[in-house]
Predict the 3D structure of the following.
Amino acid sequence: MSASRQHPDTLPNGLSWADRAACRGYDLELFFSEAAANVAYVKRICKRCPVREECLAEGLRAEDGCRYGIYGGLTPAERTELAAESLRWQAKELLQAPPKPRTGRKPAKCGTRSAYQRHVKNGEPIDDACRAANTAADNRLRRTGTTKVLR
Ligand code: SF4
Ligand SMILES: [Zn+2]
């Protein structure tokens, strides 16, 4: 099985979250089909999946994860858009926000790691944009040793 066919349903047992995947036992081909009816069907499975978050992170992390297969209920195009949106927010922040004093700062906008951390701290619900930004930052940290977007 090539890397592009990796999917939670194919991950080794013992990877605790994959064991809880709602897609276990379903035909794997469905998750790589681009037919609208199949995509809608898979999205309904993902919707009730308890490990959707972990799955989406995996889909964003996988080297070709933005090109093949549905992860976390998002199609490749939707994941690409999510990642791009998160990068746009970060770029905007970098370009627009002059360094400000720590006090009296406006809370970070959604779609940023800071906003994600604030949600966690305040026990607020976490939106997809913030979740994606945090995952993207984690991945950059792992790859480059910094959460900064390298230019
Ligand atoms: S979110 Fe969807 S693809 Fe991911 S593990 Fe759950 S059911 Fe499978
Ligand atoms: Zn948010």
About this structure: The pocket of iron/sulfur cluster (ligand 1) is lined by residues 8, 21-23, 31, 45-46, 49, 51-52, 55, 70-73 (CB under 6 Å). Confidence is low (pLDDT under 50) at residues 1-5.
